[in-house]
Amino acid sequence: MYYWGEMMKQSEYINFDGTDLAELVKNKEISKRELAEMSFSLLEKVDNKLNAVTYTRRDKVLLEAEGQFENRPFEGVPIFLKDISQTIKGEPSTGGAYLMKNSLANVTSNFVKSIQNAGFLSLGNTATPEFALKNITESRIHGSTRNPWNPGFTPGGSSGGAAALVASGVVPIAGASDGGGSIRIPASFTGLFGLKPTRGRTPVGPGVGRQWHGAAIDFVLSRTVRDSARLLTEMQTVQQEAAFQTPLFPGRYEDTMKKEFQKQLKIGFTTESPVGTPVSEDAKEAVAKVLSWLEQQGHVIEEVDNQIDGVHLMRDYYLMNSGEISALIHQLEKFLKRKITFDDVEIETWLLNVAGQNVSAAEFSLSLASWDVAAAKMAELHQTYDFYITPATAYSAPKIGELTPDEAKRTELREQIESSDPKKQQEVIYDMFLPSLTYTPFTQLANLTGQPAVSIPVHLTNEGLPLGVQVMAAKGEEHRLLQLAYHLEQTDLWVGMKGNPYFHIEE
What we know:
Elements: H1 10-13, H2 18-26, H3 32-50, E1 53-56, H4 58-64, E2 78-82, H5 110-117, E3 121-126, E4 138-139, E5 143-144, H6 160-167, E6 173-178, H7 184-190, E7 193-196, E8 217-222, H8 225-235, H9 253-256, E9 266-269, H10 281-296, E10 300-303, H11 310-336, H12 347-356, H13 361-384, E11 387-391, H14 407-419, H15 422-439, H16 444-449, E12 453-460, E13 466-472, H17 478-489
Parallel strand pairs: 2-3, 9-10, 9-11
Antiparallel strand pairs: 1-3, 4-5, 6-8, 7-8, 7-12, 11-13, 12-13
Helix pairs in contact: 3-4, 11-12, 11-13, 11-15, 12-14, 12-15, 14-15
């Protein structure tokens, strides 16, 4: 074992999860400062290749690591936070936007306070695309974040920096958020476990009662199920100031997940894209593996049509995005005391802003109402089916630059949006996002219905890239998702970091 002053090997460190590291600290086998130093040492090795970090708070965190041991569940465990909404007062917070390159946070977010209360040491911020609008992590301000499995490919987005750090071993857990799949997409692309909790489960604010009208929620990416389970136990909350609340789970997720299912489950599935786009054979094979295992466990499997118009729902999702970005730009203009121009922001932000200025209050209200219709249909589905299984992503990770428009395309899109009537503008938005949506058409449903969903790493393509399977459950049933994921984790189906070159470190 290790003792203060005796450095743990990097090859050993990366194979511990957060729960393991907290136990080592508790038993005084390693210090909090040593863990932070280990993480920074690994970061120095990998970040010139991965470009996952936007800011480090090394001096501050090493001082914090000298603090008294407090016997908290993740005491001394290093973590990085996502560079949007997960803020520490007085420290950089860019939201992935060049426009905000010099921005400092004016508050510490409630999510970060909860992370700190759990005992984590915050080492800095991770890269995200501008305003978390894309399923890749490529931005003007920070460049392209790369996938540890193969640096020619993206780790996904918008929590791509977080995924790259966890999948390279720098930290066992990283702060993430999910407004359309931004936890589950990078989890699928990098072999991680990604849980999007039930709407209202984790802290929001201060001063913000909802995120993207309930579509978005903050949580983490992890390599093990138990780390996510244990942290969810600590983070779950009922906030009086929050717009959405869900009843507290009465047990401890990390204990409940180990139990066997007490009944035969009925499970619905589909591998058809909800927006009519193609789905790879790898994605179908990944789902088939999980379904075969479930059948072997004695559960009932049925292919199911959820009766939701996926294209209509996505159009309403993008309409919400339009309104939200337009409101954000309005706020930034008031703060900056000037008009924001095309050159200030990336093309996705510009198009959404222009379109959002022409969305009526009635249209916006009706778009949100369609989410509730979808939620009712999924609630009805879960009266029959315990789980609803799909691919997490339709394909493994795209190549760096593949989904980023070049200058000519940006000019074309700008001309289209600025010359179109309001109805046509929404068509331009949908068409702009369609290449990205083709990779990731399955995740948005859970955001709009508020359900919990996970991405489970169960497949490697012939090119050696991971691909996950998504499982959805009824609202409030994270414990059942964690239970399923935990039992899958004990099987050979679980890929995790097997095959990841960063988990074969030479000292």
